[in-house]
Write a structure and sequence with these properties.
134 residues, mainly beta, SH3 type barrels, OB fold (Dihydrolipoamide Acetyltransferase, E2P), 2 domains, three-stranded antiparallel sheet, elongated, IF5A_C, hypusine, protein biosynthesis
């Protein structure tokens, strides 16, 4: 054995921590699902029973939570689907360094709270609340 010290640096998150498995038959409207490697919110679920040797299938219609695109997927109800870890965090706006759609309200002296949604390594401002004058 050598006396050298080895250090390993992790430059990225483990891919497994971004999603978790859930049985397709238990995912409901209003829940989240990964379709085509995009985090989506489920807007419609329909389950079809197939023939005597087939599997029941779930048809998911979902909206991408970041770009608003509609995606669809059909999965056997007994199979697992990836479900993203979706977090929503509120921040009080203190200062703005770049131009943006928040700048007008901030210049008027409003006290603003920004909600940021994050999932699968992406994050985006999803809401802006005025909590009164400063």
């Amino acid at each position: 054995m050598s006396d050298e010290e080895h250090q390993f640096e992790s430059k990225a998150d483990a891919g497994a921590s971004k999603t978790y498995p859930q049985q397709a038959g238990t995912i409901r409207k209003g829940g989240h699902i990964v379709i085509k490697n995009r985090a989506c919110k489920v807007v419609e679920v329909s389950t079809s029973k197939t023939g005597k040797h087939g599997h029941a299938k779930c048809h998911f219609v979902a909206i991408d939570i970041f770009n608003g695109k509609k995606l669809e997927d059909i999965v056997p109800s007994s199979h697992n689907c990836d479900v993203p870890h979706v977090n929503r965090t509120d921040y009080q706006l203190i200062d703005i360094s770049e131009d943006g759609f928040i700048k007008d309200g901030f210049a008027e002296g409003k006290d603003l709270v920004v909600s940021v949604m994050s999932a699968m390594g992406e994050e985006q401002i999803c809401a802006l609340k005025d909590i009164g004058p400063k």
